[in-house]
Amino acid sequence: MTKVKKEKLDAEEPAGVPERSYHELIANLNPIAQPLASRKLSKKLYKCVKKAARVKNIRRGVKEVQKFINKGEKG
């Protein structure tokens, strides 16, 4: 059997849910979450995390991170 390419579902957004602005999202933060990354930096961080997740290069949790640091993995 041949593989059927999946259509991109990300392009379709629900029409009833408007996207909230950056300032609206900041207003609902916990006071402990200070200092906060700027809008530009947070966009770069999200992009970097998304890219790392795509290549399965993300480490989750202290135990896993320590293990790979001790082995000498960089990144």
Quick gist of this model?
The chain has helices spanning 22-27, 39-54, 62-71.
Give an overview in words.
The chain is mainly α and 75 residues long. The protein has a domain at 37-75. The chain is built from three helices and no strands. The chain is flat and about 40 Å long. The termini are far apart. The mean pLDDT is 80.
Blueprint (SSEs and pairs):
Elements: H1 22-27, H2 39-54, H3 62-71
InterPro entries: H/ACA_rnp_Nhp2-like, Ribosomal_eL30-like_sf
GO molecular function, one term: RNA binding
Family: Belongs to the eukaryotic ribosomal protein eL8 family.
Key attributes of the depicted protein:
mainly alpha, H/ACA ribonucleoprotein complex subunit 2, RNA binding, flat
Question: What general form does the structure show?
Answer: flat
Mean pLDDT: 80
Largest sheet descriptor: none
Number of strands: 0
